[in-house]
């Protein structure tokens, strides 16, 4: 049986004053993030909003790579969202990581392929996961480290993307260890050369330093 029609007059409808702004911010967030599954992402968005947690929202729209119109896989922008949500914890529980991954509508198979690059178990060291995730975005170790710098930096977007040299060294040595094909002498030569550059920059390093032709090859 169909429900009876109910007539309302404007005086009967109470619109919360904060609703228009909430919907406006939600719409902007959806446009920037371009989620593959809008309903799934929306549920995660409002759940995070209600808890006062970091929202699953990109800082800006990412242009599709190559000639594809859409992507359902990990991107630098989505990885940066994950970093904002999880980086306050040095060690992240795998269940929490899987949930945040799912909230961003990313394929489960891709997450598993990243986790299988190291023997994490149920507890995942976030900075190591970030490094491995950067390496799956394509390219060389240098490109992976460039992505990491752009995610970890406190510089404004489009800036130098500086990070502490100690952090860079940790990431580079870890990726080189996972790679297994880079001689220790080559690793140490690159680190020594970049350490000299870092001393000139108050202990910081930036992509242009290790992407320079003057820098010994990282891989």
UniProtKB/TrEMBL annotation:
Annotated SUPFAM superfamilies:
Dimerization-anchoring domain of cAMP-dependent PK regulatory subunit
Q: Where in the cell is it found?
A: Cell projection, Cilium, Flagellum
The protein's organism comes out as Staurois parvus
Give the family per the record.
Belongs to the ropporin family.
Q: Which residues form a coiled coil?
A: none
The protein in question is named Ropporin-1-like protein
**Taxonomy, superkingdom:** Eukaryota
Q: Which UniProt keywords apply?
A: Cell projection, Cilium, Flagellum
Q: CDD domains, from UniProt?
A: DD_ROP
Leader sequence residues: none
């Amino acid at each position: 049986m169909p429900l009876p029609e109910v007539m309302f007059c404007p005086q009967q409808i109470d619109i919360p004053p904060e609703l228009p702004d909430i919907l406006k911010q939600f719409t902007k967030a959806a446009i920037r993030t371009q989620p593959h599954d809008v309903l799934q992402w929306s549920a995660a968005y409002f759940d995070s909003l209600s808890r006062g947690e970091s929202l699953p929202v990109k800082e800006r729209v990412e242009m599709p790579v190559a000639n594809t119109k859409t992507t359902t896989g990990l991107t630098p922008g989505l990885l940066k969202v994950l970093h904002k949500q999880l980086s306050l914890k040095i060690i992240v529980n795998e269940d929490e990581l899987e949930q945040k991954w799912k909230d961003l509508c990313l394929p489960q198979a891709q997450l598993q392929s990243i986790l299988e690059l190291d023997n994490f178990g149920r507890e995942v060291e976030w900075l190591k996961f970030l490094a491995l995730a950067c390496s799956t975005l394509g390219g060389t170790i240098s490109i992976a480290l460039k992505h990491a710098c752009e995610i970890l930096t406190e510089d404004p977007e489009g800036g130098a993307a500086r990070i502490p040299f100690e952090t860079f060294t940790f990431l580079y040595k870890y990726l080189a260890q996972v790679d297994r094909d880079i001689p220790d002498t080559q690793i140490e030569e690159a680190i020594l050369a970049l350490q000299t550059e870092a001393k000139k920059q108050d202990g910081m390093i930036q992509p242009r330093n290790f992407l320079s032709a003057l820098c010994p090859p990282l891989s």
